[in-house]
Amino acid sequence: MAKTIVVVNRHRVARNKRGAAAGWEGYDPAAPVPVFSVRRGRCGQSHYVEKLEFTGPGRLIYDAEHPLPCGATCWLELDPGCYIAP
Q: Where are the domains of the chain?
């Protein structure tokens, strides 16, 4: 079973910040765009969430020389048996 990878998407963080500052039409500050990307394995489909709760072992990794395919250099890696609450 593949590990779960959690990444903070900085582009979505910036979008939330710009939208709140610029007063974009249709932007709702009460419901910002989710910034956490969660996926099983390194190449799995991403699911975006606002918050994440998990139980079990995990590691916070920073590796600028070997980034993930998405370009992330810092990520949270959770073991396969780790429970993730929706």
A: 4-85
